[in-house]
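Please decode residue identities from the backbone states below.
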């Protein structure tokens, strides 16, 4: 595989601050989602139900974040 295609040899070229920032965002989001018990233990075996739960968990995370930012603005 050619290193420019992003295979095993291409990892050396792609390292940098932007890749590390993106990786941190992904890891942080996955750690937030790991707090949702229904996502950790996959009770629903069908993919569409699991996807629905994942989308619902993401919506809850963003809603809580929105509430927190609005509360911070009111307190200032």
């Amino acid at each position: 595989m050619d290193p420019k295609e992003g295979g095993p040899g291409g990892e050396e070229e792609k390292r940098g601050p932007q890749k590390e920032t993106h990786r941190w965002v992904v890891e942080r989001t996955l750690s937030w989602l790991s707090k949702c018990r229904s996502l950790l233990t996959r009770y629903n075996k069908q993919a569409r139900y699991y996807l629905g739960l994942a989308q619902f968990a993401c919506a809850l995370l963003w809603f809580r974040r929105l509430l927190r930012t609005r509360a911070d603005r009111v307190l200032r």
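Observation: Residues 3-75 form one domain.
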